[in-house]
Structures are given as structure tokens and as C-alpha cells.
Amino acid sequence: MTSLTSESTESVESADLAAYCLMLGDDALIMSHRLQEWCARAPEIEEEVALANIALDLLGQARLLLTMAGEAEGAGRDEDRLAFFREAAEFRNVRFTETTGDFAVAMTGLLVFATWRLAVFGGLTRSRDAGLAAVAKKAVKELAYHRDHAAQWVVRLGDGTDVSHRRAQLAWDSILAGAAELLHAHPVELRMAAAGIGVDPATARPELEQVLAQVAAAATLRHRQLPEPPRGGTGRYGEHSAAMPALLGELQSVARAHPEATW
């Protein structure tokens, strides 16, 4: 595979570039896995296909970013090694992506995640790193669809029956309670942003707040602005939810059972 890293980042520490790509790649990998769990469980056959395609989009993003992380790290770990042979504490995805629940929770979570990631990747299209910019330019088209697809479902559930509205409100309140983590800036993210390579996730707040307010109004859901992000203790530091070990146990099971296999 042609190297995805760029000569324009020579002044940036390789460790920071590797860590940054790992964060973005892990976000996509774990969110993709959670969406894959809806195959054969979604309320409509067409929706199973749609969610499978969204999961594949995110998996594609994860593969590119984990490959970049491995190249920047220089330790010989490829995308498969990073995805399947790390322990939970070594993952750097936001805890938000580990959330699980009913279909309303899944759609609200996808709406928040895709809106936030779209804002971040919009900034990454202007990255000084050619590899990151290329990944972002492709990803923003996918993420815009992911956001709009999830928004349609949130409106459909919120402005539907009394039962669907009640469950949509519960999902909205639950998901937004943990969404501020997305806006926390890890020191690596701040250094990458200062170098013109990455994006400070806190800059996604205005777009995220605007979209959520619009969707909440259309879905007749009660909405409050997001709280301030936590100061630390997030998935970016390897601190994950109790669900993470089981999630990885399923995601990594085949690769670990057959570690010498070629996929």
C-alpha cells in the first residue's frame, strides 16, 4: 500500500501523529461495530441495509486511519494488528461510541456522532497533512449522509406515537448526557490543531448545537444545550465503559482465534 502519511508533517512528532490517527480511527471502528450489531435487529429490512452501509463507511475510515497510525508509529503494526490485538486500555476512542441501547438510542447516538465528526472532518479537509486531508474529503460526504439518515429517524420517532415519542425523549436525554465528552480536547489534539494538522474538537460545538436544536424542534423533543466537556477521564486516555471488554471480545474473537490467518 502506498504510504498515506505526508512529508508536510515533518515538524510534527511521529508519536503525536500516530496517536491522533489512532483516536480518529478507533472512533470509527467502535462506532462501526455498534452499528453492525443492528443487522437482523433493525425495525425494517431496508434499515438493516442502510445501517450496514453506514457501518461499512465507518469501517473504511477506520482502516485508512489505523494504517496511517501504524505508519507514523513505525513499529510494524498494520491496521489488523491495531484493530484486533490491543487491549481495551490501549484504545483511544471516545467512550460515547461504546453506548448501546434500543433503536432510539442508536439513532440519537448516530446523529450526535455523525454531526460532531462531520464538523471535525470538515476542518480536517484543510489539514497540512495530505493523507489526513484526503481521508477527510471522502469522509465528509459519507458523514453528511449518516447525519441526515439518523436525523430523519429521530424526527420520525419523536414526532410519532405517544410511545415512540416517550422512548425518543428518553434516548435524547440519555445520549446528550454523555455527548460533552466529544468536545473535550486531549493534549495531542491541541498540539495537532496548533500545527495545522488536526482539529480542536471543541470547535465543533456551534455546528453540533445548531443541528441538535433543529432536529429536537422538528421531533418535538425537549432540548438543552450540552454541558461543558469533562476535564479528563475520557476514552481518549484509555478510560472506557464497562461495556468495552465485551465489545472487543466479540470484535476481536475470530482474529485472535486464528492469529496467523490472512484476511
Automatic annotation (TrEMBL):
Pfam families: PaaA_PaaC. GO terms for biological process: phenylacetate catabolic process. Coiled coil: none annotated. One of its GO terms (cellular component) is cytosol. NCBIfam families: PA_CoA_Oxy3. This is Phenylacetate-CoA oxygenase subunit PaaI. The gene is paaI.
